[in-house]
């Protein structure tokens, strides 16, 4: 019996038609017993069952992992990023790697907008003050009056641009690989964007080339009182340099949904001008359901193409 691995921390198997098709074709499904991001050793242990396919989360899929899974034919990422997958090693072993870039885009874009509005109007801080018996008359800032700098104009970045434009914000962007640029968005170099934007939000993949894209030098170049948002990938931001910029007031506020090491337990948690969430960007019910179904459909079609099933 062929085995499939689902390594994401949660997955709705019962309401997923492509997965039900795979079960009807005699596939056996093994799920993540830890209900969290798996380590390299833990995913190796799961794949030892002789798996032919897997629906992957963000666990490290390395050469060592593939060595432990000689029957693996298809990896279907439930999500966008592929930085956790050694694509070269997968290609050398004839393993097809697929992802679902469109499904989570709206959810991440809406979380980004939520971050922007919350930070501009200081909603979280005011909420906490009122709960303490205070009644602050805090003056916030209008999104309509801001210039939003979007780094990365892929599926998510384009949606963020449209949402910000609906609030009448000025939108600028940096993406040397952009193939579609929303109307009214001005493309700039990274250096121009950093010095021009009031709000800087990241929507690009992580790679060695983008490691710590926002570092001490980048923060120093930003406008006074800039706001920084990362709902893309941990590693794009030098978190220690960001903490220093927040402490000095060079960056007025930040919001992060992703971190280099998760769960995050670093210095940023000590600062009251930072909003943090637990990598929940894609976890809107409707987007999650679509993402899981697309991941399973990708897996089904990949296994058919690989000749594992008919």
From TrEMBL:
Residue span(s) of domain D-isomer specific 2-hydroxyacid dehydrogenase NAD-binding: 114-281
A Pfam entry, by short name: 2-Hacid_dh_C
Highest taxon in the source lineage: Bacteria
A single GO molecular function term of this UniProt record: NAD binding
Domain D-isomer specific 2-hydroxyacid dehydrogenase catalytic stretches: 16-302
Keywords: Amino-acid biosynthesis, NAD, Oxidoreductase
Biological process according to GO: amino acid biosynthetic process
CDD domains in the record: PGDH_like_2
Record family assignment: Belongs to the D-isomer specific 2-hydroxyacid dehydrogenase family.
Designated name of the protein: D-3-phosphoglycerate dehydrogenase
Organism (species): Nitrosomonas ureae
């Amino acid at each position: 019996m062929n085995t499939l691995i689902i390594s994401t921390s949660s997955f709705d198997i019962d309401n997923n038609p492509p997965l039900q098709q795979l079960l009807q074709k005699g596939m056996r499904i093994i799920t993540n017993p830890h209900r969290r991001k798996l380590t390299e050793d833990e995913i190796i242990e799961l794949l030892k069952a002789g798996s032919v396919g897997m629906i992957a989360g963000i666990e490290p899929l390395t050469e060592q992992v593939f060595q432990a899974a000689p029957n693996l034919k298809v990896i279907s990422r439930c999500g966008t990023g592929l930085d956790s997958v050694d694509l070269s090693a997968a290609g050398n072993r004839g393993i097809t790697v697929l992802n679902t870039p469109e499904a989570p885009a709206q959810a991440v874009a809406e979380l980004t907008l939520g971050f922007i509005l919350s930070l501009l109007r200081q909603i979280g801080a005011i909420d906490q003050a009122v709960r303490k018996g205070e009644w602050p008359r805090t003056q916030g800032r209008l999104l309509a009056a801001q210039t939003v700098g979007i780094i990365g104009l892929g599926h998510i970045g384009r949606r963020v641009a449209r949402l910000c434009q609906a609030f009448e914000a000025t939108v600028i962007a940096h993406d040397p690989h952009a193939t579609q640029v929303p109307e009214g968005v001005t493309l700039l170099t990274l250096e121009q964007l950093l010095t021009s934007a009031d709000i800087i939000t990241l929507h690009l993949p992580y790679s060695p080339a983008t490691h710590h894209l926002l570092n001490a030098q980048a923060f120093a170049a930003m406008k006074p009182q800039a706001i920084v948002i990362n709902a893309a990938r941990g590693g794009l931001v030098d978190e220690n340099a960001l903490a220093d910029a927040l402490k000095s007031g060079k960056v007025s506020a930040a919001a992060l949904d992703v971190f280099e090491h998760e769960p995050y337990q670093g210095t940023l948690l000590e600062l009251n001008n930072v909003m943090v969430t637990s990598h929940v960007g894609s976890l809107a019910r409707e987007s999650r359901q679509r993402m899981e179904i697309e991941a399973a459909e990708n897996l089904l079609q990949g296994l058919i193409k690989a000749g594992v099933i008919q």
